[in-house]
Each structure stands twice: as structure tokens, then as C-alpha cells.
Amino acid sequence: MRFWQIVLRSLRQHWLSTSLAMFSIALGVALLAAVASLREQSHRNFTEEGLGVDAVLGPKGSQLQIVLNAVYHLEEMPGKIKWTYYTKVLKDPIVESGIAFATGHSYAGFRVNAIEDSFFTDFEYVAGQHFSFRPEDGGQGRVFQAREEAVAGWEAAKALHLHLGQTFNPVCGINAGDPVHVNDDIKFVGIMAPTGTPHDRAIYIPLKTFYTLQGHDEVAKMADDEEFREISGAYLKIKRIRGGAMHPGIQELKYNIDQSSAAQLVIPNEVLPRLFTIIGWVDRVLVVIGALVTLLAALFLVVALISALRERRRDIALLRALGAQRYTVFGLMLCESLAITLLGGVLGILAGHGLTAIGCHFIAAETGLRFSPWFVSVADVWLLPGMAALGVLAGIAPGIQAYRLGVLKNLTPIS
Amino acid sequence: MLRTTTGILAILSAWLLLAANKVLAEEHGHEAAHGGCLNELCECENGHAEVKVEGNLLRLWFVGGGNDTKKSVRVPDKELTLTVKGSNGAADKQVVLKAKPIELAEEKVGDCSCFEGQADWLKDVKEFVATGSVMFKGKKTAIRIEYPKGYDPDHDAPVKK
Q: CB–CB of B104 and A253 under 8 A?
């Protein structure tokens, strides 16, 4: 019988303890793999891609709240800013363009944002990528042109089964029970092609429609009077220097705006890493839990191998009597341990991707961001060698016991 | 045994010293909003004058004390005169800084935190010490600028023996 056949037969003989050890290792590895994958994808999505927004001009208040509202269509804006101030900012030499918006309305759980129509032509949700309504990209219809027209993001349209020509009445607020603009029937004239960004989860109406919705009596004046007009914020595109880098003057622009009494400039790529610093402990705790589960599984494996060895003392002694060397029986134990941890590791990585797939579904539902269950994280690369090392370590103690086993003493029948 | 204990204590002490030094350095590591040098006004907690030289242009921003170096402090002065000490026996030079209100911060002359002044000799200067005064937070306050390292008497003062 070959060496590996002995190993496999031994594993099969103790299938219950083997599978339990493998399952516990897989559990720990799955947790580690899923946490690492979701963490790396979140970092990439929230910090590197920036979702096409160089900077957000917003009211005074929490910078994080502004980014979550303007870029991710979550939370609420902490206030409003004057249109006249926004136009002043647009004149700054390093500002290339701006797109003003007004948030605070919703429909069936999706945000309804009033926005300038340049959003659909100038805004790049990823460098060089503009929104599309072309059927070949998955879109339908066109950009709004009239007051009573709206455009839906792909996710919103899919979730609400929207079709072109359908009308809706926006809710004045984002909470359950907020009043509905019952007399404002707004018609969907376009569905944006999927972008894989939170913009898929919003509905857009023309900026001026926001001011003239029925019930906005005081605000109606803002549609025509620029001195009186207010907006929730604006996306700013900053000029580029050589190499495509953002103009370094953005820091001075930020300083200048931040000194004003009513507005601030928020740079999403600076704010979001801070969010990770704040919530970073969550994934650290999960990583520690995963590592502890794996460690406990390894200890369980040691115990299982030692107890299995006790039952197999006679078999080992027989092997030795038939000419097997001490290091051969040591190797047997080591390889059994290695096989269990490696199989557990492979199963764990697969289960980890399964967990990630579940996480992706919930993240997409909540934020509109698309994560991939097949993303290869650093953990995927390091977990298997790590499990191999753990397997070797866990096999040492039972291996030494097998190595030291007395042949004559253990050849005696047990019963 | 005694030697081991002493060794462990020595390592622990060195580690504590390093950690304390790092904490102190971080605590006083104010960040200049414009990438210039920060000069304390009287004392660190009172405020700073951030100075940046770009060619023949000297720019100065009055900012807050402590960790508020990214918050502007407006002063009523319409212009400031800085006297730059001549090096190697050369005569002192003067540079007049005019108020340069930050429009986006709704500033105006007489209620402004930013000043600018031009002088050709600034182009060639690598370092200088300049003095002047300003009405800062309602008090006449001496300005001392040590360019480019910044003026920080609390931390530059030699240790008394």
C-alpha cells in the first residue's frame, strides 16, 4: 500500500473527527476570506474610484454626511447653499465645471434628486464614462427636457418595474409618512443604462422642477430669482494638470471655501478613508474572530489526531514491524494533518466567496455599489499557504507521538 | 536573573521614551493649510502666521492657534510692514503686505486674513527673519517670521542648564 493510500484510508477511518476538523477550519477560513474580500472591495469602491466626483460643494455640517448624500444617495444634506455662492465658486480658475443638485425627495424608497441636465452629458461616473440611454448599453428613452419629466437609474427602474411613460408623484422627504406631491404627476422619459454605481439607485428630475412642485410655495420664487435660489450642493470638476492629476490648487480652494460662513468643499477621496478609520475596528474584530475560529479548529485537529493515534497504536506498530521507518510514521501524521487543513482551506475559500456573494447582494441593495463574489483578495492568495503551515504545526505533536511509539509494547493485541 | 530583569526594564523604558517622543511630535505637528511655514504669534495656542514665498511674492495667512491651523483669523489691518533683517551686516529691508481678501470666504479689506506683498529681492532669498506687528484678536501682537523653518519658540528654545 502506498504512503498516500495509507493517509487517505486513515482519514476515511476517522471520517467523523476528520470532517468536523475540516468543517471548523473551513468556517474560520470562510470568515477570513469573506471579510478580506469585502474590505478590499469597499476600499477600492469608496476610495480609489471616487465615483467621478472630484469635490462636492455643500453646506456646513458633517463632511461624511455630505459625501454619503451627494455621492451615495444615503443620509440627508445638513442644509442648503446659495446659488449665488455656487456661481462664484464656478468662476475660480481651477474649477472646470459644476453640476448643482437639490436632494430631499423620494419615491418608493428611492431618492428623487433634482439636478441640472448637464449631469447626463458632462458627468463622468468613471473616468471617460458618461451616462447612456442607448438600448445597446441597457438604457431606454432620453434625458428629461420638460418640467414634468424624470429619468430613472437602472436599479431603481428594475426594482420598481418602471417603464417609459409611467408617472409618479414624488414624496416631499425621505421618511415614511412624509407628504406626497399628489398634484405633480411626473413622467418617466428615460432609464439610464447600468453603471454599477449608486447613481443607478436614484431618480432624477430637472432642478427647476424641485422649486415648482406644488406645496413649495416659498421656494417657488427660487426657480426664477437667482438671488433667492438655494441648492443642496454641487458636484465640482477640477481642472487637471500634467499626468491627469487633480490641480493642486484644490487645497487652497478648499481652504478658501471652508472659511465662509455657509459652505464647505468636501473632497470624497479624503473623507472616505476617514470613514474606514472609524469603522475599521469592525473588520478587525471579524478578522480576529476568523483567526480564533481557525486556531481553535487547529487545536481540535491536534486533539483529534492524537486520539486517532491512540486507536491506531497497533497499526502503527505493525507498520514499523513491517519495516516502516520512524520518520515514515511521523510523516504519516504530518500528512494527515496537512490534508485536513488544506481541504478545509479550499472549502473555506469557496464558502468565503459564497458569503461574499450574499454580502454583495445586500451591499448592492443598500448602496447600489456592485461588489464581485469572484474578487481575488490578498487572503485568497495567502490563506492556503497559511493553512499548509498550520497543518504542519498541528501535525507535529501527534507526529512526535507516532515517532516515539514503542513497537514491541504496542504489538500486543488491544483487546 | 537580575541581569535579565534589568535588560527587560531597559528595553521597556526605551520603548516608552520612543512612544512618548512620537506622541509629543504628533501633538505639535501642526499642518500648514497652504504648505507654507507656520510662525507662532506670541504663543502656539494664540495663533499663527503662515508664510509662503512664491518667486517675488510673499503670501501670509493668519490662522488659528493649537490645532486650528486650517481656520483663518481675520484682522482689521489693511496693510502690514515686515522688516527683514539683513544678513552679514547688510541693511534691513522692508516689505509691505496688502490685505488680499479671500472672496469665497466673504472677506473684505479691514476684515481679512490674507496678505500679499511683492519684492524683487525675495526671488533670491533662501531664508530670512522678519518682524512686524498686527492687531490680532483685538491685541497688538508682535510678528516674528523665521522662513522657511517657521518660528516656534516653545520648541526651539535651548534647554536651560
A: yes
Q: What is the pLDDT of residue A158?
A: 92
Whether chain A has a CB inside 8 Å of the CB on B1: the answer is no
Task: Give the pLDDT of residue B45.
Answer: 83
Residue that the C-alpha cell 472659511 belongs to: A259
User: Residue A43 is inside which H or E element, if any?
Assistant: helix A15-43
Shortest Cα–Cα distance, B157 to chain A (Å): 31
Distance CA(B29)–CA(A197), nearest Å, equals: 38
pLDDT digits (tens, 9 = 90+) for B100-119: 999 999 999 999 999 999 99
B31 touches chain A (CB under 8 A): no
Question: Contact B37/B147 with Cβ under 8 angstroms?
Answer: yes
Q: Give the ipTM.
A: 0.76
Inter-chain touch B113–A259, beta carbons under 8 Å: yes
Confidence class of residue B19 from pLDDT cuts 50, 70 and 90? very low
Cis amide linkage into residue B148, ω under 30° from 0: yes
Per domain, the residue ranges of chain A are 3-46+274-411, 55-266
Q: Are A131 and A123 in contact (CB under 8 A)?
A: yes
- The whole-number pLDDT of residue B26 equals 44
What are the chain B neighbours of A259 within 8 Å (beta carbons)?
71-72, 102, 104-105, 107, 113
**pTM greater than 0.80 (yes/no):** no
CATH of B32-153, one of 1.10.8, 2.60.40, 3.30.1330, 1.10.10: 2.60.40
* Among A92, A251, A260, beta carbon nearest to B105: A260
Under 8 Å between Cβ of A153 and A244: no
